[in-house]
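We store chain and fold; thus.
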Amino acid sequence: MTPKELEGLVTLALEEAKKLGAEQAEVGASHDKGLSATARLGDVENLEYTSDRGIGITVYKDFCKGSASTSDISVDAIREAVAKACTFAKVTAADKYAGLADAELMCTEIKDLGLDYSWSIEAQDAIELAIETEAAALQFDKRISNSEGATVATNRGTRTYGNSHGFIGSVSRTSHSITCVVLAESDGVMQRDYHYTAARSPEDLDAAASVGRTAAKRVLDRLGARKLTTRRAPVLFAPELARGFIGHAVGAVSGGAQYRRSSFLLDAKGKKIFPDFVNIEERPHLHKGMASKSYDADGVATYDRDLFVGGVLQDYVLSSYSARRLGLTTTANAGGTQNLVVPGGGKDLAELAAQMGTGLLVEELIGQGVNGVTGDYSRGAVGHWVENGEIRYPVHEVTIAGNLLELYQRIVAIGDDQDLRGGIRCGSLLLEEMTIAGA
């Protein structure tokens, strides 16, 4: 569906809500289309085409909120959904913080952020590309004995949001990816690893064969993995894991965690969380950014800001609702943050390994052992042991642990080798010391 068609549905729902006596209303409509092809051992394993559309309505009356949604976008179905939302609002408890964001905060300029790059790839072409990706991995080395497959995926979605302040906006976004997962065996022991490329534009994807070869190299590097004895040592996170490590702090300073009093960074505004050299910037308008937005889920205009400066928290991550709960102003983060950037210090992974000297390079994390209330951190880890700045051997079946309040202060360096495939852009991250639990 075109943005104009979706905007027509949103306008219809808003008008119907007004007729039924809603004091405020907001409506979101979307249409997503996607193609995914997976090949395993040279044959097609899965081919999936999706086309999903729907509309969601939320109304407010006397601080009571009612919501309803439908995948049927006929006029009658939309009117019925609005009526249901209004009915629900009559029986829900009043919440004095409920309602739309302030009208003066609404976005007035929807920027072209380079988010829409369709990939006109046919199913057969996607299949062939997936087969090519996997073949490059399987042919790389005879020790690569099996595969969980290679997948080529493309998606394009258009989302429209409007509310009774008169705001209405539409954005089309695309996402494309190529993924390969393979297994290797040596001396009767099997290892598994993967690699992927993801981007807004298909032109920015790595070549299919390159993805397969990288997956092959990664899994071969795991062969002969050893266990470690329990010790304390420096830990170096690869970029794709460093962003998650930073992300725990972002979750802890979200408005929801703050007003629920369930955060290890409670009331942390103005406090020093990271070392002096750590800055975290929010840049919602990056061209082709994986989390770029002109407005948040409340319709509030997004803007550049610095979340942490010199390690000090400048502000929380707030939607209009959580801001009201805290007696603050929204930071245009309904729906989450937009492109967090962690500037590095001019080094890459290899240079940080040399700086570390001896320690653990972590390349995969297992489990969800992070307590957002206490900050306790304990996760299974896979990677390589480094001595004198050089990788010596692969490591598995170890656990890295500590408390995030202390671990954040132990960051000694951040690299420039940022991973651009997600909403947090952070390079390799070196910690002075963590507990490594092994055999």
Summary: Residues 3-19 form the longest helix (17 residues). Residues 3-220 form a domain with the PmbA/TldD fold fold (CATH 3.30.2290.10). The chain has a mean pLDDT of 95.
